Structures are given as structure tokens and as C-alpha cells.
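INFO batch 0412 | record 1 of 1 | parsing
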Amino acid sequence: MAFLADSLARVKPSATIAVTNKARELKAAGKDVIGLGAGEPDFDTPQHIKDAAKAAIDRGETKYTAVDGIPELKQAICEKFERENGLSYAPSQITVSTGGKQVLYNALMATLNPGDEVLIPAPYWVSYPDMVLLAGGEPKPIETTIDTHFKMTPEQLEAAITPKTKWLIFNSPSNPSGAGYTHDELKALTDVLMRHDHVWVMTDDMYEHIVYPPFVFVSPAQVEPGLYERTLTCNGVSKAYAMTGWRIGYAGGPEALIKAMAKIQSQSTSNPCSISQHAALAALTGPQDYIDESRVAFQRRRDLVVAALNQCEGIVCPEPEGAFYVYPSVAGCMGKTAPSGKVLESDEDFVTELLETEGVAVVHGSAFGAGPCFRASYATSDESLTEACNRIRRFCGALK
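INFO prediction complete | emitting C-alpha cells
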């Protein structure tokens, strides 16, 4: 009898983490590698946030807290939702977890039964389908294309809904494509959801503040108040405040769901790190200058990378509305032969040969459910991005 659970056979390791680890290993071995796989800002956490954490330590805020968040942080999250999203939540409707991933996982574990379907527009963050599988549900990708800038259409959403559909996981701006839905585009989708009252919406708004004018961020329950009672609005401090390692995510939603998620958390991790919670409190209530400063830098980098990649033979790179990723198509490179003699038959072949030949680490698009593409993060220095793009152009130019 096998010792490990059968459920493990249904899931895969995170492709983004695998690429990042591979790049680290090659660097440690002395290879000249530029890693564009990591999904985190390269900036330091703002000083006032670090100071708040240090002060919390000095005050002795080092004990267990309430399972799903300290009261003052929950109140700050309520005020954030009201101020920035026009959504009114009470503290009893707020949950705080060890990162945004745990928020999503808790919700899926608390709601999915065998046979329940979860709609996931592709390309998607690599963890969505596997979390659904671990929770006992069935992920149902909705394939998008570069022709629609990797955005799901209302017609696709309507066609995908079945009596078994329980959730739609909605991520805008998107990881990996950076695609953001405008108010009108989102209203067309919420109109479909209003016709199917058994479908709940799980929004992943993690990149809310990393958007580029003229794009304006909106969240589903903000666009369609009729969805409020069946929407879990998920967010966190990781991307907006360069706090990936602090591991704080949060969500607002119906009280019964929030209580069920707290029950899951009470029997898994218990409370998020007490010090990180006080740091998150300072992030949400303190100066917000960092958000605009980082956005300017990210937009400059986006423009640099999009322009450079569109000069590469066989690559087409759409301009993303937000986040810090590009998701170019390499369809024009398929079937060509790399300098090693390898024929490129997939985007995984492309990124493997690119890493081996030029030392640039990106993530293959098939890991995100849509290829042949790759995801590259531009959350690194302008110099590194310029060099990486030069290497990619050289690699593409050497294909026969």
C-alpha cells in the first residue's frame, strides 16, 4: 500500500518556484544567469513598515493572536476596502492569513465538494488549478488568446457555466499576462454572473495597485453590487508594499464563509505571524507614497521590455495593463532549431534552450495553461532587463 496520499498525484510542483530555484542553482554554480521568473518586487519594504515591525517586537507583540487576524488590522482592512473599492465590510467579514495563497486555499477547502467545478480563465496563476484539485474540486480552464489580450469574453463565461459550477476565480490584473479588465469589460462579465446565482466569485486583486494609466482598477463586487453576497474579495500586502516575505493576505466576504475559513485556519496554521500583522497594519494605514513611486518604475520597465521583445524575431508581446509581467507569444519560433540542434516543439523547449544557451530564466506559458508563450517578470533593474532582452533577441536571431 502506498504511503503518500493519492491526492498528491493530482497536483504538480509550482513551475514558477521551480524556475526560480533552477536560476539560483545555476548562479551558485558560477553561471551568468538573469532570473526573470520570480513574482516579487525587487524594491525593499518601505522603512515605516519595517519600523512598525521592530516596534511591535519591542512591545512584546510576539504571542498568539486571534486565529484570523488582530482586531486593529481587520479594522484597517475594512477601511481600505471602503476607501479604495467602495465595499463595506464589518470586521466579522474579514479574514487574515499567511499570504494570499492561504486565503484562496482556505476558501476552496471550506466550500468544495467532490464534483464541484471551478472556472479559471487561462492563462492563470499556476497554483489555482492545483489548489482546486487538493480541495477535491474540478478546475475548468477557460482558454483565452493573444487576440483578446488574454481576456475572457462574456460568451466564453456563459458557455463554461454548468449546474456544477461553484466558483469563478477572477484575477485582474493577471498573473501571468498583466491583462486588466476595464469597468465595461468587467460589467459584461458580471451581467453573465447575475444570471447564474449559484456561481460565486473569488477575486484575486493582489496587483490592484500595480496598474498603468489610463487603466483604472475595479473589482467585481464594486462593479456589480448584486454580487456582493457571493463574492470573496481577496488581496494582500505582498505586491503593493514589497512585502512578499512577510506573508500576509486578507479577504472580505460573507460572514458565514469567513467563519468557515477561520475554522480551516484554526486546524492548520492558526494565526498569521504577529509581527507581520503589525507591519501590514502600518502598510495600510501609513504613508502611501511608495505605491506611486514603484508604479512609475514598473511602468518604465514595462515599456522597455515590451519594446525590446517586439523587436525579437518570432516574438509578439502585448502591452500589459498592470502587474509586473509580460506574456509574449513565441508561436513564430515553434518548429525552428536552436543552436544546440534541438527543434523547438513547445514553449517549454524554448525556455529550456534560452536558459541553457543565453542564461535567461523565464517560465514557460504551458505551466499557466496557455501557450506557446512565456512569462517574464520585469521586477528587476533596468540594466538586467536590457541585458536579458538583448540575450533573448540574440537567441531568437540564432534560430534556424
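INFO post-check: The chain has a mean pLDDT of 96.
INFO record closed
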